[in-house]
C-alpha cells in the first residue's frame, strides 16, 4: 500500500471517530477496494461491546450490497430474522422492500442497505439515544467509504436519528434533506407498511420522487 493510500485510509477512519486500530498494516485491505474494506470492518466490529444491544446479539448486522452504490438505504435496526442471519432487511419486510424497489426499477444488488444500529434491540423496541449514538460512527464510516449519491431513510427512528429531528414522519417525507452533504429522502419502513397498508400509497409517492432523482443521476 502506498503512503498516500495509507494516509487516506487513516483519515477516513479518523473522520468516522475511530481512533484505534486492531490490525497490523500488512492486514489492511486496499482502501480502493471498498468491498474488502467494508468486509474487514464488519469482521472487526463483530464483537462490539459499545452499547447494551450487544447482550442480545446473535449476529451483528453490519450491512450488505454494492460498495459502489449510488443509493444507500438506512433502516432502524435488525429484527429477529436479521439477528439470526446477519443480513439486513430479510423476512417479510425484506420481501416487501424487494417488491418496492422492483416497482421503481431498482435491483437490490445495485444498492447498499444498512441500519442505524447494527444489533437487534430486544423485542424490537426502538433503540435508545445512547445506543444510536454509540453505533453512529459505524454508519458514518460506511457512508464515507461508499459515498452514495442519495440516501433513503426508512422509518421514523432512522429519520430522526439521521436528521437530528423530532418532527413526525409525515412532516419529514416528501422533502429533500441532507446528511454529510448527501441528499436524503425519507419514507416508511417496510415493516410499518405491513402493519398499516394505508401507508402504501404515500410510500409509493415517496418512491416515485426518489426514482426521478435516482434516474437523473444515472
Ligand atoms: S448496536 Fe452498534 S454500538 Fe451497540 S453493540 Fe451493536 S455494533 Fe456496537
Q: Structural class of the secondary elements?
A: alpha/beta
Low-pLDDT windows of residues: 22-26
Bound molecules: iron/sulfur cluster
Shape: globular
- How would you sum up the major sheet? 6 strands, mixed
CATH architectural group: 3-Layer(aba) Sandwich
Count of individual domains: 1
Instruction: Provide the CATH topology.
Output: Uracil-DNA Glycosylase, subunit E
Can you give a write-up of this model?
Helix content is 44%, strand content 11%. The chain has 218 residues and is of the alpha/beta class. The protein starts with a helix and ends with a helix. It binds iron/sulfur cluster. The site of iron/sulfur cluster has 13 residues, from helix 5.
Q: Secondary structure elements and their pairing?
A:
Elements: H1 3-15, H2 34-44, E1 64-65, E2 71-75, H3 80-85, H4 91-103, E3 112-115, H5 129-146, E4 150-154, H6 156-163, H7 169-172, E5 177-179, E6 182-187, H8 190-195, H9 200-217
Parallel strand pairs: 2-3, 2-4, 4-6
Antiparallel strand pairs: 1-3, 5-6
Bound molecules: iron/sulfur cluster (SF4).
Iron/sulfur cluster (SF4) is lined by residues 45, 48, 50-51, 53-54, 60, 117-119, 131, 134-135.
Amino acid at each position: 500500500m502506498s503512503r498516500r493510500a495509507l494516509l487516506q485510509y487513516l483519515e477516513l477512519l479518523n473522520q468516522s471517530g475511530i481512533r484505534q486500530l486492531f490490525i497490523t498494516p500488512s492486514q489492511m485491505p486496499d482502501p480502493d477496494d471498498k468491498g474488502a474494506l467494508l468486509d474487514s470492518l464488519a469482521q472487526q466490529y463483530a464483537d462490539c461491546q459499545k452499547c447494551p444491544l450487544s447482550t442480545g446479539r446473535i449476529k451483528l448486522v453490519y450491512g450488505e450490497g454494492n460498495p459502489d452504490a449510488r443509493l444507500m438505504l438506512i433502516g432502524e435496526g435488525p429484527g429477529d430474522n436479521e439477528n439470526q442471519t446477519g443480513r439486513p432487511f430479510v423476512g417479510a419486510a425484506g420481501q416487501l422492500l424487494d417488491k418496492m424497489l422492483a416497482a421503481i426499477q431498482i435491483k437490490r444488488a445495485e444498492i447498499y442497505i444498512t441500519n442505524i444500529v447494527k444489533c437487534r434491540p430486544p423485542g424490537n423496541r426502538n433503540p435508545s439515544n445512547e445506543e444510536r449514538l454509540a453505533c453512529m460512527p459505524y454508519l458514518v464510516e460506511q457512508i464515507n467509504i461508499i459515498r452514495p449519491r442519495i440516501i433513503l431513510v426508512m422509518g421514523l427512528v432512522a429519520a430522526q436519528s439521521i436528521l437530528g429531528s423530532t418532527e413526525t414522519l409525515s412532516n419529514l417525507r416528501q422533502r429533500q434533506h441532507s446528511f454529510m452533504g448527501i441528499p436524503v429522502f425519507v419514507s416508511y419502513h417496510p415493516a410499518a407498511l405491513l402493519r398499516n397498508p394505508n401507508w402504501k400509497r404515500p410510500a409509493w409517492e415517496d418512491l416515485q420522487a426518489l426514482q426521478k432523482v435516482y434516474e437523473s443521476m444515472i
